[in-house]
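Deliverable D2.4 — example input (structure tokens):
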């Protein structure tokens, strides 16, 4: 077989994007498969199909089965398919017959086929159509796939270039026009020229997002310090992760409970957990995992509300290990899960109170081994059963916000500002009747100790720093000193304000919907306030290897600046686009030549989840002005379309338009040059 050796072509202008849509590639596959059958070098096998065409050989060595010259002989194609078939028998004891999957396996196993393919094609058709396809179904990140068809016009023709697939819209060099328009788009691009005037038009679906990170390169013993800024809405409190083991309404001080400051005696002994270990159980919906005997029990979980309403969940429950699967606060009154609950999962608990009574059936395996169905105390129900007003609703904490997924945040570097709306145009303070202004940071209880106008370190929660040997929970969190901070703020002793005074000061700006709205879309989309956060994260290792915290980076879109100096790819650094890791080749030399140890990195990243697809429509023109300059014109329109059936409050689709004019003039000034030389 002739080895796969695609012909080289002139270098493209602009960076080559690295994103393609699976749907477009799948539509292209049947035509390419038919093409493979017509090409020489086709070979089939039990698990693999390959089609290869080499570069056009010399005229005197053309074989009899070679494709006619000038048609497809410059197109190289490689198609690889892989199919696997397998099955097995599984049976569990005890077994839940309601799943009807593995309780009574038959003689013939279920055979599940797994077929995957990859396609590479590079070359030209009739010397006018350029093909560049690189698709692999087994790749973990779609950013590595590429799809592009390009038509090149002849010199003097009106239409000079057309592209379909991953297109790059070239913009004039202006930071005002390029900040909001990523280069990676999937769609149609056309370029035309008439005389000295050139035109460009694009209609595409935007695929990438611009990201920026700043790092401070420390010494080998400190590692790399990353400077992050983020914005968290008041509706983005942590969900499905922090729960009370007791009814919080029975804890002294409710509803103004500072979770980090709770002590064991804060709850009555009839409900507070005693010295015996707490047993936490998680109901999961995966039947194969549920029927694994070790660590699972089949039980009912029940919780009765104050009004007599009862919520019940029945299924298989997995035992969670303390210090590994969850964090238990020293008060014994609340926990934090390492992995948040999904909407279709539930949480339950069993323990012995300080008074000696049992909450749920303690050690439920004992009852199951005797043939019975144990009963657990339900903490959180599934989906529709866990709603405002239902018994389990108050058991979930909604006063905790995640600032970073890393526990290596320097607490002294954390700065938080609260604004009503966006920070650029929103209010950051409230005005008392006397005319005195109070910052929202202080109103919501986050600025009670010196230094003022800065978030208190006491409200920062870092479980890994608290328990380095095993916390069962990772990250850095901000904890408000009340359960519903944006509806029922806590007292502000430093200003002499009671809880009622603060609530009256808040007035109509209190956000009730994020806590009490029945529609989950309304709860999650009714944000009023923003937490504007900046912090520093210390990473492991030295300054030579840096994790950007992003995956699927578009190749060629990165820009690295150490101080004011731009680093060169391949000479100063290497970038792994799939894992988002930068390796500085000579960090000591780079730092010695730079006046700053701050590294600024920007790149374009594939949006893994884009709830509002963005469409880009734009055009540009370049008009030369004599031989000394030119004028560039640009117009871009971006529109977001909501994939949901109706707009949600606070999350409506947005659109924006930009227009620009740029002039460039270059001319020698010999008089000025002569004068400067004399000076």
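Example output (designed residues):
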């Amino acid at each position: 077989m002739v080895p796969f050796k695609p012909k080289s072509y002139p270098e493209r202008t602009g960076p080559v994007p690295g994103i393609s849509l699976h749907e477009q590639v799948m539509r292209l596959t049947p035509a390419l498969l038919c093409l493979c059958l017509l090409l020489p070098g086709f070979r089939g096998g039990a698990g693999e199909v390959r089609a290869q065409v080499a570069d056009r050989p010399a005229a005197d060595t053309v074989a009899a089965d070679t494709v006619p010259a000038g048609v497809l002989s410059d197109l190289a194609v490689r198609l690889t398919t892989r199919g696997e078939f397998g099955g097995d028998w599984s049976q569990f004891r005890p077994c839940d017959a309601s799943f009807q999957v593995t309780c009574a396996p038959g003689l013939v196993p279920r055979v599940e086929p797994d077929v995957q393919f990859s396609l590479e094609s590079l070359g030209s058709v009739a010397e006018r159509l350029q093909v560049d396809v690189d698709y692999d179904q087994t790749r973990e990140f779609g950013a590595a796939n590429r799809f592009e068809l390009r038509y090149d016009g002849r010199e003097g023709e009106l239409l000079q270039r057309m592209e379909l697939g991953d297109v790059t819209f070239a913009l004039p060099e202006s930071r005002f026009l390029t900040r909001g328009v990523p280069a990676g788009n999937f769609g149609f691009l056309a370029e035309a020229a008439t005389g000295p005037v050139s035109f460009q038009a694009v209609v595409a679906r935007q695929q990438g997002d611009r990201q920026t990170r700043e790092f401070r390169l420390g010494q080998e013993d400190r590692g790399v310090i990353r400077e992050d800024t983020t914005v968290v809405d008041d509706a983005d409190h942590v969900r499905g992760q922090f729960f009370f083991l007791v009814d919080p309404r029975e804890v002294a001080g409710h509803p103004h409970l500072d979770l980090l400051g709770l002590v064991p005696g804060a709850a009555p002994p009839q409900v507070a957990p005693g010295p015996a270990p707490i047993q936490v159980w998680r109901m999961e919906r995966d039947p194969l995992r549920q029927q694994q005997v070790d660590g699972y029990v089949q039980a009912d979980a029940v919780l009765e509300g104050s009004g007599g309403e009862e919520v019940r969940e029945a299924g298989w429950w997995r035992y969670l290990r303390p210090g590994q699967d969850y964090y238990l606060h020293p008060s014994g009154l609340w926990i934090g899960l390492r992995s948040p609950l999904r909407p279709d999962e539930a949480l339950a608990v069993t323990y012995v109170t300080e008074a000696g009574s049992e909450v749920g059936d303690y050690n439920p395996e004992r009852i199951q081994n005797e043939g019975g169905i144990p009963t657990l105390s339900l903490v959180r129900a599934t989906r529709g059963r866990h709603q405002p007003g239902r018994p389990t609703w108050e058991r979930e904490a909604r006063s905790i916000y995640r600032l970073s997924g890393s526990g290596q945040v320097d607490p002294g570097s954390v700065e938080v500002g609260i604004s009503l709306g966006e920070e650029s145009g929103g209010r950051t303070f409230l005005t008392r009747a006397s005319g005195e202004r109070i910052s929202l940071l202080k109103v919501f209880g986050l600025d009670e100790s010196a230094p003022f106008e800065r978030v208190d370190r006491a409200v920062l929660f870092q479980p890994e720093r608290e328990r380095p040997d095993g916390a069962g929970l990772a990250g850095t969190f901000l904890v408000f000193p009340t359960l519903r901070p944006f509806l029922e703020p806590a007292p502000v002793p430093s200003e002499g304000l009671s809880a009622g005074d603060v609530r009256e000061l808040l007035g109509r700006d209190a956000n009730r919907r994020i806590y009490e709205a029945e529609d989950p879309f309304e709860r999650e989309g009714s944000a009023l306030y923003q937490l504007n956060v900046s912090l520093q994260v210390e990473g492991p290792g030295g300054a030579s290897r840096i994790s950007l915290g992003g995956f699927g980076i578009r190749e060629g879109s990165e820009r690295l600046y150490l101080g004011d100096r731009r680093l060169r790819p391949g000479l100063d650094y290497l970038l792994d686009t799939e894992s988002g890791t930068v390796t500085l080749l000579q960090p000591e030399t780079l730092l010695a030549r730079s006046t700053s140890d701050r590294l600024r990195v920007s790149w374009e990243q594939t949006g893994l989840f884009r709830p509002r697809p963005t469409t880009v429509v734009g055009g540009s023109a370049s008009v030369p002005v004599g031989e000394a300059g030119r004028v560039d014109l640009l117009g871009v329109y971006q529109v977001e379309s909501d994939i949901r059936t109706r707009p949600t409050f606070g999350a409506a689709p947005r659109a924006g338009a930009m227009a620009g004019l740029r002039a460039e003039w270059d001319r020698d000034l010999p008089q000025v040059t002569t004068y400067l030389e004399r000076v």
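The longest strand covers residues 112-125.
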